[in-house]
Amino acid sequence: xxxxxxxxxxxxxxxxxxxxxCFGYGVxxxxxxxxxxxGAIVSKGLxxxxxxxxxxxxxxxxxxxxxxxxxxxxxxxxxxxDEKMPELRRRGATVIVNVCGTTIDEYVEVxxxxxxxxxxxxxxxxxxxxxxxxxxxxxxCSLNGTFDVVSAVRKVxxxxxxxxxxxxxxxxxxxxxxxxxAGADAVSLVxxxxxxxxxxxxxxxxxxxxxxxxxGPAIRPIAVRMVHECRQMVxxxxxxxxxxxxxxxALEFIIAGANAVQVxxxxxxxxxxxTKLLDGxxxxxxxxxxxxxxxxxxxxxxx
Amino acid sequence: MPIDxxxxxxxxRPLSSDYNVLALAAPAxxxxxxxxxFVMLRAGAGRDPLLRRPFSIFEIxxxxxxxxxxxxxxxxxxxxxxxxxxxxxEGQRIDxxxxxxxxxxxxxxxAHGWMVAGGVGLAPFAVLAQSLRARGVAxxxxxxxxxxxxxxxxxxxxxxxxxxxxxxxxxxxxxxxRVVAPLERRLAALAPSAAVLVYACGPEGMLAATARTAMSYxxxxxxxxxxxxxxxxxxxxxxxxxxxxxxxxxxxxRSCLAGPVLxxxxxxWD
Lengths: 303, 270
What we know:
The complex is a heterodimer. Chain A is of the alpha/beta class.
């Protein structure tokens, strides 16, 4: 089965992408995973400057999932370019950078820096992090904000621009449409669901930020539904994610309408998951006599 | 490079109604593990519980020829994953990823090795005690628990020639109170010319008290920190510890990569 796909000018050899915030800067996994074998890796979120994020505890496990509020700890765009990109280039990784900002100017500036960096294949715009007070989700929860950020970044780069959408809105497909109208090459969804876990003995939240983002298999059916809604609303590629833990989960997203998928939480559980996912996709293609993965996208068969 | 194996449970020995020692067949991991390193264990086979849990490598198991055949972990039952590990049966498979993290510094004689353990914080010290003995380092274990019934493996340490200094909160064994009290007296009595490295593992308050005490006597101290950890490989940024950098500022450092063994004087204990 031909697993390759195209997102704007970026060619992916397969649809399996390591999700932002779940794969460090990629280099952390270079010893356990052949980075070049992945469709792409998405960097941890990058602001203009370094950030320390929230104090621990930053995660708590939930039924079939986990809650996180890391707070976008990160080294900033310039250090990423200087310290991480050389190794990612050397290892042949297809790199998508996750760009954050507290203002549109910051999104534009960080995007410009990274788009000019050799080896950066696309920009994922983080307009959906639920865990920081300013920036990100304030744009992702407003149709005008989404349109404005995407069009501003669109103007300063020719590499693909992929806004990452939040599920914490009433109608996520309308945000996909706003992104498409602003010139996005694809959309990725879903980021995490805003959620809370409380220790009943102490009556304190179990993570330092109080609330955090829910991920993992628990959210998968909601994410599949949202990907399907976006597929019906836009023509650009949709990158689906939310709780994928095996090849069947990935196929569910693809059949719902995803052209590619991202895997996050499951990579924490099994860093060797990628070859299993790839084998599972190939096996499915053989059993169902599917020549190209793209033939499967959005083929959900209603009764 | 860490290795992931579906490790067979060789034995599961309950030490109390909460504590158990789980022996896993993981020869490739055991063969390269160093004292203070950890493994990520996945207690269940399904998606709930989902995440792996970090455990210090407690012992390295060897066959008659001395070849590593497996490792043990010391676990305290506090949630769903540790309950599954408490109930694990011989022959069952448990995903085991390791060895991970930075180990303890092993001193050479005439320096002394002083281990300070609180409760389940005993976890990294069995294998450390073996390494210290192999180098001929005189070692002491300061070991505190709630009550006598929660002081484990005493004969193991005695057999290695480790001096034991015990404390319990209820006075049922050793000195009554916290383990830092006898540590402080011994530090105060130590000749300035004598070298010692203090190793500590245990609850956060006990770790901070141990670190401050060691630092107040200008003695080096390495602590093995325990943080809620998502992946063990540096991917998730969950397990951070505030540490003072070369620039003087406090930064969040991933304890899975920089630790779990960290130098006490570099941690921001406030």
